[in-house]
Automatic annotation (TrEMBL):
Keywords: Aminopeptidase, Hydrolase, Metal-binding, Metalloprotease, Protease, Zinc. Its cofactor is Zn(2+). InterPro entries: Aminopeptidase_N-like_N, Aminopeptidase_N-like_N_sf, PepN_Ig-like_sf, Peptidase_M1, Peptidase_M1_dom, Peptidase_M1_pepN, Peptidase_M1_pepN_C, Peptidase_M1_pepN_C_sf. It comes from the Bacteria. This is Aminopeptidase N. It is an enzyme of class 3 (hydrolase). The keyword Nucleotide-binding does not apply. Residues 240-451 form the Peptidase M1 membrane alanine aminopeptidase domain. It comes from Kangiella aquimarina. Residues 458-561 form the Peptidase M1 alanyl aminopeptidase Ig-like fold domain.
């Protein structure tokens, strides 16, 4: 732990190649219940591409050094120095060592304490099983090493442990040997033939249930597939296994990429900071993204499991075979791999629905990050703690940037770029720039300006005005772009923005697109915005069109265009671009919500605009639409996304307007919601095909409107759905709706649910978060109770996220209570957590980031908590970075 004086900032511009390389490494792990001995034997060599120096500086934290040898000589005190972060070896003080000419061997021996490691970084114990997490800089908590992604080596790993307690001993690559030892112990040796950076190292040891399967690659290689889970959970692994096989087939089909080892293992652990980790040949997963059974997991959980399995699998090429030179390049692997998993999921489910879901994440979370104190480009320029940069910007905006290549170059052009990327860089640690140049060279396409997406933070704002000339059948679009200043960056240069558009005639058909001049500015239906102000003249526009702009959300920007209600209702009913159909509905709802806010501001009663009824009713009864699409198109915009639309928000008015609109729509269309609920809610045998999933999604939204009526009849429906359901999708929907309502028996509902599911940890987490997100007043007391509940455990990140994360991140009314109790609660939890698990504590701290959006009193209350956090003794640098940047 450090205080602010010892906190240093790392800069991208300071990159230097490592002074030494590691050609190969052998690790020996002797595992015991309360400690482990790690012996590392590595062949080092001075890096010909770097300045040579007499000092070999290895990273290492929380290690007890027990011995150190170089080239067979035991080192004495003057030959090395150890501090809390590094081991420095003075090679020039070692007799007869010509480290500049020849490679030499280093052996170190350290003692570590996995059972006491609550940070869940490095080697730790989780429910009596050992596991590791090394990305980004966790390997240095296992042994002294050059812990940086551009140092790649082949690994041989020997693990020994008590046989009875830890029958499975796993590491990367292939098992080459195993056997018994004295004292009831045994060992296994693993060898990974692929050179890899330390962050991809993994080790697991424990007693698991194992699901086995296999996959034949298209070149005919047989791959063993293994999923290791806690005892008793085998029944919940089949979906993960199927997802893995689908992912393997998809990557062959779409990108021509085959798996390269003979075995692929997945281990599920209950205590994990993130979703999952792509360690070579041995992925480690949060149980949440492996286990799925219809009784305990929702349709959304199934989709998430499939997506995360795919994501980690896809990393084998985008991340492992080609890795990052340094952590500033993180988006090189993450943005690309998220894009790949998004495409995969779209292919398995529905392209429009998936696109809408992904854009919702961008709008509610990434836009907020881009507009807040932590704003950074997808390739950051600096950081204090790398763990704080596993962000929606690096991941999701990064994926949007990759998607823009796909939009600009087309499917084939994108594939050509990928092929060249692998051809050039397989086996190397490279940069975002290397990726851009591969795309550029493979397509002979100029991406000079496009590169600004990597260097400039902030969300570009695109403003469009239009003018139709009836006489000459001309449509003129004036389009401006600007990007707000972000911390450390002002005066941004224009981006290359692909703006996909359509011009609709009065029947909703697309009119042909043709520019009068500068025809290269339009390719297909993509308009290329490249300047701060541009004018585009479309000719042959037979009559005044309705504009469908930024179709499919073709760029991560905010679009401003002065639509009127009729145009929006028209697009909501007719746009051929499903994304923009949804978008038109969201804009329509948002306009109403802001209008209702204005009425409150003026001290007037809120008025429900009846024109909405028609629009919603039409959509509701459109038989041609998919149920999941309908569910999305009938859901009001997220309050978080709405907050990002304004400079400062009156949160009380916004929440009141949102509630009012929901209730009014519920009332005005009461019979419709009921009829559609009944037509789509299914009782009887459970099915999980696309049609059944769509019906559940649609029925769920109908039920949410019915419950908003606050009537006994509606509560009865929800209760009956909960009690009679044979699947978690219906159960969780009903549970949440009831817990978030004024239903008088909700305590009873909560108790019954807990009693039924108390032994299914992931379901208990749903129960926790359903309560933590209850927007009603009693929740603040309830959450305080929940953290005392036996089901809660501050050392388990899933629990922390289910209660504290859900409360601070998704319960706006209660987190932002005007008495400040929500903020105090969050700060209290951060205080409990920062020394236990700094990474998770820092994530929670981010909930204060948008304090500037709120009224003076809330601002004051939030800053008070942030200041308190900064005063904490031995504050971790993770939390320090977030809190100090928030206060600016
Ligand atoms: N690299 C992981 C992924 O995106 C995420 C991760 C980062 C997991 C850091 C653990 C620690 O797939
Ligand atoms: Zn990833």
């Amino acid at each position: 732990m450090k205080t602010s004086d010892s906190i240093s900032v790392k800069y991208r511009k300071d990159y230097k190649p490592s002074a030494f390389l590691i050609n190969k490494v052998s690790l020996n792990f002797e595992l015991f219940d309360d400690y482990a001995i790690v012996t590392a034997r590595m062949m080092l060599q001075a890096n010909p591409a770097a300045e040579s120096s007499g000092a070999l500086v290895l990273d290492g934290e929380e290690l007890e050094l027990q011995g150190i040898e170089v080239a067979g000589q035991k080192l004495v005190q003057e030959q090395y120095e150890v501090d809390s972060e590094q081991l420095t070896i003075w090679l020039n003080k070692i007799d007869g060592l010509d480290y500049q000419q020849a490679s030499f061997e280093l052996v170190t021996k350290v003692k570590i304490y996995p059972a006491q490691n609550t940070s869940l970084e490095g080697l730790y114990l989780s429910s009596e099983k050992f596991c590791t997490q090394c990305e980004a800089e966790g390997f240095r908590k296992i042994t002294y090493y050059l812990d940086r992604p551009d140092v790649m080596s082949t690994f041989t790993v020997r693990i020994e442990a008590e046989k009875k307690k830890y029958p499975h001993l796993l590491s990367n690559g292939n098992q080459i040997e195993h056997g018994s030892l004295a004292n009831g112990r045994h060992y296994a040796i693993w060898q990974d033939p692929f050179r890899k950076p330390s962050y991809l190292f993994a080790l697991c040891a424990g007693d698991y249930d194992l699901l086995e399967d296999h996959f034949t690659t298209r070149s005919g290689r047989e791959i063993k597939l293994e999923i290791y889970v806690d005892k008793g959970k085998l029944e919940q692994c089949h979906h993960a296994m199927e997802s893995l096989k689908k992912s393997m087939a998809w990557d062959e089909e779409v990108f021509g990429l085959e798996y390269d080892l003979d075995i692929y293992m997945i281990v599920a652990v209950g205590d994990f900071n993130m979703g999952a980790m792509e360690n070579k040949g041995l992925n480690i997963f949060n149980t949440k993204y492996v286990l799925a059974h219809p009784e305990t997991a929702t349709d959304q959980d199934f989709e998430d499991v499939e997506a995360v399995i795919a994501h980690e699998y896809f990393h084998n090429w985008t991340g492992n075979r080609v890795t990052c030179r340094d952590w500033f390049q993180l988006s090189l692997k993450e943005g690309l791999t998220v894009f790949r998993d998004q495409q995969f999921t779209a292919d398995q489910t529905d392209h429009a629905v998936k696109r809408i879901e992904d854009v919702k994440v961008i709008r509610s979370h990434q836009f907020a990050e881009d507009a807040g104190p932590m704003a950074h480009p997808i390739r950051p320029d600096s950081y204090i703690e790398m763990n704080n940069f596993y962000t929606v910007t690096v991941y999701n905006k990064g994926a949007e940037v990759i998607r823009m290549y796909h939009t600009l170059l087309g499917t084939d052009g994108f594939r050509r770029g990928m092929d060249l990327y692998f051809e050039r860089f397989d086996g190397q640690a490279v940069t975002c720039e290397d990726f851009v140049s591969a795309m550029e060279d493979a397509n002979d396409y100029d991406l000079i300006q496009f590169r600004r997406w990597y260097s400039q933070a902030g969300t570009p704002e695109v403003t469009v005005t239009s003018e139709y000339d009836e006489l000459h059948k001309k449509l003129t679009l004036q389009i401006g772009q600007a990007c707000p200043d972000t911390p450390g960056q002002s005066n941004k240069q224009p981006f290359h923005i692909p703006l996909k558009l359509g011009l609709l005639d009065k029947d909703g058909n697309d009119l042909p697109l043709e520019l009068a001049s500068n025809k290269e500015q339009l390719t297909g239906d993509i308009l290329h915005l490249t300047e701060a102000e541009q004018t585009f003249e479309f000719v042959g526009v037979s009559h005044k069109p309705v504009l469908s702009l930024l179709r499919n959300f073709s760029a991560p920007v905010r679009l401003f265009y002065d639509y009127n209600d009729q145009e929006l209702a028209f697009l909501y009913a007719h746009d051929k671009d499903s994304f923009n159909r949804w978008e038109a509905g969201q804009r329509l709802f948002a306009r109403v919500i802001w209008q209702l806010c204005a009425e409150q501001e003026a001290g007037e009663p809120m008025q429900f605009p009846l024109h909405l009824v028609n629009a919603v009713q039409n959509l509701l009864s459109d038989e041609s639409l998919d149920g999941r699409f309908k569910a999305l198109a009938l859901t009001l915009p997220d309050i978080k996304a709405l907050i990002e639309e304004v400079e400062r928000v009156n949160l009380d008015h916004l929440i009141a307007a949102h509630d009012f609109l929901k209730r009014e729509l519920a009332k005005q269309l009461e019979m419709d919601w009921l009829v559609h609920y009944q037509a789509n809610h299914h009782v009887g045998a459970f099915k999980q095909d696309k049609a059944a999933i769509a019906k559940r999604a649609f029925a769920g939204v109908c039920l949410s409107y019915l419950v908003a009526l606050d009537k006994p009849k509606a509560y009865e429906l929800a209760v009956s759905q909960l009690v009679n359901s044979n699947n978690m999708t219906d159960a969780e929907t009903a549970l949440q709706l009831l817990m978030h309502s004024n239903y008088s028996q909700k305590e009873q509902i909560a108790d019954d649910f807990y009693r039924k599911w108390q032994n299914e940890e992931l379901v208990v987490n749903k129960w926790l978060s359903a309560q933590a997100t209850d927007p009603t007043d009693s929740t603040i007391e309830r959450v305080k109770g929940l953290i005392e509940h036996p089901a809660f455990d501050i050392k388990n990140p899933n629990k922390v996220r289910s209660v504290v994360g859900a409360f601070a991140g998704s319960n706006l009314p209660q987190f932002h209570r005007n008495d400040g109790k929500g903020y105090v609660f969050l700060a209290e939890q951060i205080k409990q957590l920062y020394s236990v698990n700094p990474q998770t504590a820092a994530r929670l701290t981010g909930a204060f980031n948008r304090w500037k959006k709120f009224d003076d009193e809330r601002q004051r209350l939030m800053c008070e908590q942030l200041q308190g956090i900064l005063q904490l003794p031995d504050l971790s640098k993770d939390v320090y970075e977030i809190a100090s940047k928030a206060l600016g």
